[in-house]
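step: validate -> pass
step: tokenize input -> pass
step: predict -> running
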Amino acid sequence: MSANRKISPGQWVLEIFTALLLVFLWVINLLPFRAKIALGLGLGHLLYLIPGSRVSIVRTNIELCFPELPRKEREDMVRDTFRHFGAGLVETVMCWWDNPRSIHPITETVGMEHLEAARSKGRGVILLGAHFSTLDISAMLVAKHYPMYAIYREQKNRVLNHFMVKGREKYLLGSIPHTSMMGAARRIKEGNPLWYSADQDMGEDRSVYAPFFGHPAATIHGISRLAKLTGAPLLMLATRRRSDNSGYVVEYLPAPDEFPLDDDVANATIINEMIERGIRSAPAQYYWFHRRFKTQPGMEKGALYRRSSLESGIGLNSLQ
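step: predict -> pass
step: emit ->
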């Protein structure tokens, strides 16, 4: 970020609030594990009760992705998404400031044989990530056994960006800007695992449309092209809290043997299916706050997130 960029008063307020929030979370972090997770869940519930656009975005995403659920179950998922988001804030501070060894004994790993098989090929590994509320705790748990690099996007919030980069230095080999694909390829070819998320709408220029929960979603093609360039196998990394919040389950899900194909849409479809599988294991722990369906063919950007679109019956299925 340019040091000469003019900072607006609103940006200053946001960054001061971020600093105060981090101090508050640091105080919570002094508590025993279960107590601080419980407080994080409570903090998330309070955020759910505050009216705002984020509640609307989460509600819209869940309506689109889980239309088969009764309305009450969907609203429960909206509430629980906020609760898990609050727990994730506490966990992130744990990772950035403590790198706690105490949580490793309460972690179960599923599918480790897939990671071992991928690493045995000697071509590095691409760990397909998604924005779960367990994002940082997941990276820390994996990096304890397999030090890795991660693709990251610089945050406009300077306070958040500083603590994010410095905090992740404790458990990552390094962070690679999302614009540096050759840097990512070089690290993979050295035999390193690389975490790379593919679940955000980056617009049409860097993406193709592929189904996500049965609806078209702009999906980046960088991961499949990186896999072709390096020959590295792809695994989905999905980490979830246990239902009683007593620990974590880290799961590795392998890509189909035919990945990557020569078709960007087919590759994006495989990637979205893998992410969807990871989400379905604990849907309320996914970060539904992003406008995943913001870019749509033949529609104004963000149209699906205007309440009138859903209420008038203008849905994604009509685009298929």
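step: describe -> Residues 308-320 have pLDDT under 50 and may be disordered.
step: cleanup -> pass
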